[in-house]
Amino acid sequence: MTKRYLVTGGGGFVGKALCKELKRQGHYVLSLSRGAYPDLEAAGVHTKQVDISSNLDTWAGLFEGIDGVFHTAAKVDMWGDYHDFYTTNVIGTRNVMSACRRAGVKRLVYTSSPSVIHTGENLRNADESLRYPKHFHAFYPQTKAQAEEEALGADHHGVMHTVALRPHLIWGPNDTNLIPTILERARAGRLTRIGAGENMVDLTYIDDCVRAHILAMKALENTPDVVSGKAYFISQGDPVNMWQWINQVLEVHGLSPIKRTLSTRVAYPLACAMEYGARALSLVGIKVTPLLTRFLVSEMSTDHYFNIARAKRDLGYFPSCSIADAMKKTFGAVS
User: Which residues are catalytic?
Assistant: First the structure.
């Protein structure tokens, strides 16, 4: 049955892949993004240039007649001004929910992040019972956690049903973030292993990330009493050694493996000093992004992999491929 779906952040990696898959399945798809994306239009996706943190009255009407909303838009970065993160991630999410209520849209799938429970410590087979930490080391997880909590609390007497998905380290063909960042840093000679190099992490292949979103929307349509108000970890369920995987990525691009290392005992205080220096410079109008931050150090040196049993049970989500298969799909033959 053909549905009418709206995707915020349709120009991003997840949003674009989601738009194209929904369209391929025969649905009407409307993408809201700040920029113009001719490739989406060419794929039959309707597009509107909208800043979701702007005046709601100017764009809320676009939600009329929509069956469900996928809210993937976010400011994702390791560093920046709190106001920028808060405006996009919190105010933007509030605006999207308000637009849904005005138009009578009852279903919202919110793209969250496992970083909302990030404490800087190891997370091994972590599940959704973990609470949000009291303190965050970066504005991105802080504002995403606030937005997720508000989104999951939006279900008032069945007026709107919401689900939050927490896919971890999304990658695959047409990746615009993870793989390009690794390659850019490696080519610039700025890729350094933090810690002992033994930390295990979860990865999420883009096709499975998209499928999880569509399954979540179907669950909101068919079993809202089961899933509404819940968060779900999404991954391949196949943790890998982070640094071995990064070296594999470098190898298939003809780049040398990582040689430089930095212990966490050195990296963490160095990150603190770099953050302090960046903040001091910002007070005199000079914006600098520190090479290391506390959040980045902990992300690169600790275990973080997650239990996806709830997504399997409630959403019917099962990874379609292993990490090895995903590497082949993304890069071709991998040694």
Answer: 140
